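Course exercise 7: structure representation. Students receive a sequence record and must write out the corresponding structure in token form. The form below is the worked example handed out in class, using CopG family transcriptional regulator (70 residues). Read each field label carefully; the graders check that inputs and outputs are placed in the correct fields and that the protein name is recorded exactly as given.

STUDENT ID: A-19
EXERCISE PROTEIN: CopG family transcriptional regulator
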Amino acid sequence: MPKRFRLTRRFPVAMTEDGFRRLKAFSKDAGLDEGEALSFLFENFNSVINEENLIHRLRLFNAELDDRKR
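STUDENT ANSWER:
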């Protein structure tokens, strides 16, 4: 029997404009709302990412983060 889909947590989140646009596009393409899309991505995180790309992209993001906050 499939697990019941309940959104049990709500939390304030800050996102970049680029990140939010990408989330909206992904959720639209998948036929989900933004909360459902985030739940899908995090529930299936290990199977939807490429670990080497993630590590590389995270380093780049962290390196630019201070400049992007200004």
